[in-house]
């Protein structure tokens, strides 16, 4: 998971992933879309590949990049689990705050008794 979130932390890599999830593209076609060198785009693709977010396949002289939706689903499941955990914690806090302490029902919290 660390590799996935590291890969997704970069704007360019997220953009590349978005593009190749909808349709496979060659590294050279991707490189034409960015104001950076071919080698820099290749490095971004390599980070995505190490995280298993994309796969590369050689077709002649071209490297074709394709997104892997399964890896994104695994990352989403992890995030969903974290969301469920935090929702349970917030709910538990809400329950605690909603409980009235014995002897305080109907009392004005701004007044004190001596």
Low-confidence stretches: none
In the CATH hierarchy, what is the class of the domain at 2-68? Mainly Alpha
* N-to-C SSE string, H for helix and E for strand: HHEHHEEH
Q: Distance N terminus to C terminus?
A: 58 Å
Number of distinct helices: 5
Quickly give the CATH architecture of the domain at 2-68. Answer: Orthogonal Bundle
Rg (CA only):
25 Å
Q: Order of strands across the widest beta sheet?
A: 1-3-2
Can you tell me about this structure?
The chain has a three-stranded antiparallel beta sheet with strand order 1-3-2. The protein has five helices and three strands; from the N terminus they run ααβααββα. The chain has a domain at about 1-70: Winged helix-like DNA-binding domain superfamily/Winged helix DNA-binding domain (Arc Repressor Mutant, subunit A, Orthogonal Bundle). It is an alpha+beta fold and about 110 residues long. The termini are far apart. It is elongated, with a radius of gyration of 25 Å. Strand 2 and strand 3 form a beta hairpin. It has helices at about 1-10, 10-20, 25-30, 40-50, 70-100; strands spanning about 25, 55-60, 60-65. Helix 2 (about 10-20) packs across helix 4 (about 40-50). About 60% of the residues lie in helices and about 10% in strands.
């Amino acid at each position: 998971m660390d590799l996935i979130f590291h890969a997704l932390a970069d704007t360019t890599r997220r953009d590349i992933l978005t593009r190749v999830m909808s349709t496979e593209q060659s590294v050279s076609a991707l490189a034409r879309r960015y104001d950076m060198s071919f080698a820099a785009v290749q490095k971004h693709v390599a980070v995505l590949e190490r995280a298993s977010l994309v796969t590369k396949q050689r077709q002649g002289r071209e490297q074709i990049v394709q997104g892997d939706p399964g890896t994104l689903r695994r990352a989403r499941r992890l995030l969903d689990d974290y969301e469920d955990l935090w929702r349970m914690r917030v709910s538990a806090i809400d329950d605690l705050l909603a409980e009235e302490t014995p002897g305080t029902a109907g009392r004005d919290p701004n007044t004190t008794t001596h």
